[in-house]
């Protein structure tokens, strides 16, 4: 589905057409309401404006009316005041008869003009003539008016010359009144002569009663003009009389045309709005019904659109969220579609590959991808592993699934499985290889061997198995640490791998044990040449931290089909041969021979026999005396174990001690030796000591100290008379453990001597660091003493060293008088050997010590 359609559907789906119709109608109603409101506001504004104009007009005409009132009163007073007769009868001499009775200035003014007050004030401002409401009444003007009239009189007199009357508004008993005053002058009458007094003043007072005001107002088109009362609210429809309305205000009835306009306009607008609302409601109802119908039909459309959109979204999510990319190719195997993930996963450009051949991108191990796709019976659920090269040049592996498309061509997914394949490969490798050296391990060896044996090796092209074991490797590990040991193993591994051909196998099957499988070796000479090469290459020093480490190797060889045809047998025979090689002095090789197996069986039997011998007291103990060389005095004896086998006769300890060590019998054997030696020696005279040999394996058992303590306790011998002989291999295996045990042993009170001194390589350093009381020079030095001057020097040096370290130096294996003489010459402390005495059985030894002092120097030297 195209994207824009989807977007329309999704946007539409948010709103129904009912709501859509409603929304637009409401908008329209809102607009109309706005218009009505505007019209109402304009109408109100217009009305107010009309009222304001009307008000201003009324005020203007009121003013006009007042002005006309003033004017007419002024004219009236002017007519009477500027008159010669009035001057004569009201100023020169006040003549009420002329004025009132003859009606010259009398009640007619009240009757005709409504002038309520008529006064004449003389030159000294005294009221001399007064008519009130048409009746002659002697009353003082100021009194009647209620306030001073001086300013009016002054103004009237000031206008005398120009015959100008004056007017003013006053308040009389709460009613405003218009006062007009004019100075009485002769006017144009030439018969009247002016006197030199101040002119008298004629004053008309017109009370502004409501009836009069209304009549004037009517004349000027102002309705209901009247004086404002205290009840009137203070609004603008008023006209102020006098200065600032101090006299009072005039009011009139405002026609308020604006208000009238509102009265008509607003209801009209209201009715119009009501009508519009009604119409809107009707339209809305119709629109809703129509829209509901539309929605109903739309909802069903929506449902299918939704389903489509959901499925599309799901597809998109799956396609983009998974690490897979989706592809489509046409009938010509060219890409027509690649999902967006393609670029992210492969790092390749989508544009570059659209239209390109699929086979150019992806390759399989068997044929091209298009071949695979067009296989007639290809199942769609079967995937294929393909390779391609990413932009960084690395090979990537992808798993491809494919399905036919109806319009020819294929579509499918591609899953990147590079990491998975690599991880599986790695796991496979690790499970078949040794983690340290990377060489194949026992599992791989087994597999390889099975495969090779299945191919049926023949006598002409046999399968050769070498079992190789490093000599002197353990000390490297112990002395230099495991890191150094690992380095040596790695170095040896690579040297071994270098010596064999491609197709052969070098496996590491144990700590320092290797197995080599060789094919394509025809003669025994060839095998021997290889063994020679192997040993030689291993013997080359290995450099570790500026130190050179030497190891060597022993090799046992077994061949198929001659020796065996089964993997297990072959391995066992190669091991037997290896054992033989080691027994033969190491650093060499041995071919498996039939009788080797016999020897092994023999050894097993011997082991059983030894177990029996220990249990049933077949062992004997011999004692070889040790003498002080200086004076030939016997100082003690070394206990040496003997085994007389019922069938084989006397078996030397060099033969059965290793068997005892290997089988674990050494502890019970040694216990017997210790007990027997201590018990025997406990009876010896002159503080003779007994020296007992300990096997290095006894140090590893943990309870050595307790065992010795037990023997000391059981025998009751003075611990100072017991010496323990240990070889340096004890220290080689676990120096710190050995040191601790030796210190504990020393606390028991026994002496400790280093046996076979000079055969190992670090004896000297041990001598200093460990609590030895003595050392025994190995008999191999004595053997060579006759021939080698060097050895003489060495013995001398050892004796000197022993002295320096306060150790008792004993020479072993003294066989000749010369040797003894020489040892005496270098002041060696003690000696032991056939020349002095062979090891003796208990009876013989007891007899000997019964003799007590055997003067060595006298009898033998
Ligand atoms: P070792 O401790 O060096 O014992 C001395 C060996 O030299 C003894 O051999 C002794 O008979 C032999 N010998 C003494 N004087 C001479 C001589 O002048 N010339 C020659 N060629 N040999 C002489 P043996 O008794 O056969 O013992 C061999 C080794 O067996 C001993 O060597 C010792 O390491 C071990 N061994 C013997 N008895 C015991 C024992 O009770 N316990 C343990 N753990 N090892 C023992
Ligand atoms: Ca010894
Ligand atoms: Ca020895």
From TrEMBL:
Pfam families, sorted: CHASE4, EAL, GGDEF, PAS_8
A GO CC term assigned to this protein in UniProt: plasma membrane
Cofactor: Mg(2+)
PAS domain location: 311-366
Any GO molecular function: cyclic-guanylate-specific phosphodiesterase activity
Main enzyme class: hydrolase
Membrane recorded as keyword: yes
Domain GGDEF, chain residue ranges per copy: 461-594
Subcellular location: Cell inner membrane
Residues covered by the EAL domain: 603-853
Keyword match Transmembrane helix: yes
GO process terms (BP): cellular response to nitric oxide
Annotated EC: 3.1.4.52
Positions of transmembrane segments: 25-47, 261-284
Keyword terms: c-di-GMP, Membrane, Transmembrane, Transmembrane helix
Reactions that this protein is recorded to catalyse: 3',3'-c-di-GMP + H2O = 5'-phosphoguanylyl(3'->5')guanosine + H(+)
NCBIfam families (alphabetical): GGDEF, sensory_box
PANTHER family: DIGUANYLATE CYCLASE DGCP, MEMBRANE PROTEIN
Name by which UniProt lists this protein: cyclic-guanylate-specific phosphodiesterase
Source organism per UniProt: Pseudomonas arsenicoxydans
């Amino acid at each position: 589905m195209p994207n824009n359609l989807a977007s329309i559907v999704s946007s539409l789906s948010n709103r129904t057409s009912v709501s859509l119709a409603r929304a637009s109608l409401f908008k329209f109603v809102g607009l109309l309401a706005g218009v009505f409101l505007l019209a109402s506001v304009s109408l109100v504004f217009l009305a107010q404006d009309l009222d304001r104009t009307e008000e201003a007009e009324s005020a203007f005409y009121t003013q006009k009316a007042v002005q006309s009132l003033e004017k007419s009163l002024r004219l009236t007073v002017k007519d009477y005041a500027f008159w010669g007769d009035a001057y004569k009868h009201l100023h020169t001499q006040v003549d009420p008869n002329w004025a009132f009775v003859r009606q010259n200035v009398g009640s007619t003014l009240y009757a005709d003009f409504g002038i309520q007050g008529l006064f004449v004030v003389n030159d000294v401002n005294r009221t001399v003539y007064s008519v009130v409401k048409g009746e002659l009444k002697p009353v003082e003007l100021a009194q009647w008016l209620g306030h001073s009239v001086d300013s009016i009189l002054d103004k009237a007199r000031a206008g005398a010359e120009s015959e100008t009357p004056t007017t003013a508004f006053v308040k009389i008993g709460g009613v405003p009144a218009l006062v007009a005053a004019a100075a009485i002058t002769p006017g144009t009458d030439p018969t009247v002569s002016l006197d030199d007094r101040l002119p008298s003043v004629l004053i008309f007072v017109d009370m502004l009663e409501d009836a009069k005001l209304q009549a004037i107002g009517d004349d000027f088109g102002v309705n209901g003009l009247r004086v404002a009362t205290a009840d009137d609210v203070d609004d603008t429809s008023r006209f102020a009389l006098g200065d600032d309305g101090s006299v009072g205000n005039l009011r009139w009835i405002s026609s308020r045309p604006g208000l009238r306009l509102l009265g008509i306009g607003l209801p009209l607008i209201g009715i119009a709005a009501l009508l519009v609302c009604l119409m809107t409601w009707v339209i809305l109802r119709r629109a809703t019904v129509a829209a509901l119908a539309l929605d109903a039909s739309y909802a069903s459309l929506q449902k299918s659109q939704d389903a489509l959109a959901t499925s599309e979204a799901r597809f998109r999510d799956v396609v983009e969220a998974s690490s897979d990319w989706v592809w489509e190719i046409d009938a010509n195997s060219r890409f027509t579609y690649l999902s967006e993930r393609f670029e992210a996963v492969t790092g390749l450009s989508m544009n570059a590959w659209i239209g390109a051949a699929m086979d150019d991108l992806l390759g399989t191990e068997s044929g091209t991808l298009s071949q695979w796709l067009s296989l007639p019976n290809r199942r769609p659920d079967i995937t294929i592993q393909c390779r391609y090269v990413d932009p960084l040049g690395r090979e990537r592996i992808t798993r491809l699934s494919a399905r036919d498309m109806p319009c020819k061509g294929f579509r499918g997914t591609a899953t990147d499985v590079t990491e998975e394949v690599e991880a599986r490969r790695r796991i496979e490798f690790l499970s078949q290889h040794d983690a340290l050296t990377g060489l194949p391990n026992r599992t791989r060896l087994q597999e390889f061997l099975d495969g090779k044996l299945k191919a049926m090796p023949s006598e002409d092209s046999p399968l050769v198995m070498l079992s190789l074991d490093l000599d002197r490797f353990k000390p490297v590990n112990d002395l230099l640490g495991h890191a150094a040991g690992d380095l040596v193993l790695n170095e040896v591994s690579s040297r071994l791998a270098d010596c064999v051909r491609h197709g052969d196998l070098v496996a590491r099957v144990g700590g320092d044990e290797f197995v080599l499988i060789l094919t394509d070796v025809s003669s025994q000479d060839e095998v021997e040449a290889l063994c020679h090469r192997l040993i030689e290459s291993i013997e080359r020093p290995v450099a570790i931290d500026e130190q050179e480490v030497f190891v060597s190797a022993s090799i046992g060889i077994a061949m198929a089909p001659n020796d065996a045809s089964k993997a297990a047998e072959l391995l066992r025979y190669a091991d037997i041969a290896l054992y033989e090689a080691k027994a033969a002095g190491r650093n060499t090789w041995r071919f498996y021979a039939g009788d080797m197996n016999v020897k092994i069986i023999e050894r097993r039997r011997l082991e059983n026999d030894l177990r029996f011998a220990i249990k049933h007291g077949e062992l004997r103990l011999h004692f070889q005396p040790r003498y002080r060389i200086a004076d030939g005095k016997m100082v003690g004896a070394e206990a040496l174990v003997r085994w007389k086998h019922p069938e084989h006769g006397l078996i030397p300890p060099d033969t059965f001690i290793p068997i005892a060590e290997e089988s674990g019998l050494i502890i019970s054997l040694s216990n017997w030796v210790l007990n027997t030696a201590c018990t025997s020696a406990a009876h010896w005279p002159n503080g003779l000591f007994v020296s007992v040999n300990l096997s290095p394996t006894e140090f590893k058992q943990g309870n050595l100290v307790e065992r010795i303590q037990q023997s000391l306790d059981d025998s009751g011998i003075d611990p100072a008379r017991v010496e323990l002989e240990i070889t340096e291999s004890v220290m080689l295996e676990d120096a710190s453990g050995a040191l601790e045990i030796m210190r504990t042993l020393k606390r028991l009170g026994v002496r400790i001597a280093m046996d076979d001194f000079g055969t190992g390589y670090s004896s000297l350093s041990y001598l200093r660091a460990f609590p030895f009381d003595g050392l025994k020079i190995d008999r191999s030095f004595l053997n060579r003493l006759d021939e080698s001057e060097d050895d003489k020097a060495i013995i001398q040096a050892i004796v000197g060293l022993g002295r320096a370290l306060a150790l008792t130096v004993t020479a072993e294996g003294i066989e000749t008088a010369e040797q003894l003489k020489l040892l005496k010459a270098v002041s060696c402390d003690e000696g032991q050997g056939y020349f002095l005495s062979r090891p003796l059985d208990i009876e013989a030894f007891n007899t000997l010590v019964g003799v007590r002092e055997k003067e060595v120097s006298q009898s033998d030297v």
